[in-house]
Amino acid sequence: MKKINIAIDGPSGVGKSTIADIVAEKLNMRHLDTGAMYRCVAYKTLKDGVNIQDEKAMSDLMDTIDIHFDEDNHVYLDGEDVSKEIRMNNVSMQASKTSQLGIVRKKLVNLQQKVCANKGFIVDGRDICSVVLPDAEVKIFMSASSKARAQRRYDEYISKGIDADYETIYQDIVARDYQDMHREISPLVKTEDAIEIDTSDLTIDEVVSKVLDIVG
Ligand code: C5P
Fold first, then answer.
1. 176 Cβ closer than 6 Å to some ligand 1 atom
2. Residue range 155-176, pLDDT digits in tens
3. Residue 195 region, left (φ>0) first, then alpha (ψ -120 to 50), else beta?
4. Ligand 1 closest atom vs CA 12
5. Comparing C-alpha atoms, which of 13, 66, 12, 70 is closest to residue 44?
6. Taking CA atoms, which of 25, 74, 78, 148 is between 20 and 30 Å from 59?
7. How far apart are CA 57 and CA 91, in angstroms?
8. 3-state secondary structure of 153
9. Single pTM value for the model
10. What is the pLDDT of residue 1?
């Protein structure tokens, strides 16, 4: 098969990462989880007590930050495996704020485009179809109701042994949707050429097979 890139956008908790992981494995592609990169930036601001309104401090942070993934898609921030830490609720909310900053987006988009330049990637996020990979061979927009998404994220946390409260997760999802869709730079949008999959009532296997059908 000719090497291609697959772009998947959609709101929080819609299952993009889970689906991308499975499809990547089936098609022998690599999965790039761009949300994890924004989460690393957010986690670092919290850990180091950086004021995100301080342009100089954010610029220094972005100049020195090191984010990379291993073969199992564990994410490393400045050499430390933070795969679990970046999934905490406070990091999710902070990521929604730091991802509004032009300086953060510029550096991460650049990095993402470099990683995917030779194709063979399935990339999930908010601005992949519109900004990161507008030339991707396959573009998908995944959607689901906010209640379905909150329930899934709650189940995911519990299965990973992370403390969770459904109502808090639901409220956070609604707030994050609003922030992601109304920000000035690269808001979450469904591009005209993206194929929408509403996953509210679909199992993981059903979504995977829809994606594979689209890829062809
Ligand atoms: O996908 P995930 O929930 O892990 O993303 C965390 C946050 O990072 C999102 O709420 C969003 O604000 C931001 N993000 C983004 N652009 C991307 C991926 C994530 O702005 N491509």
1. yes
2. 988 998 988 899 999 998 999 8
3. beta
4. 3
5. 66
6. 74
7. 19
8. helix
9. 0.93
10. 67
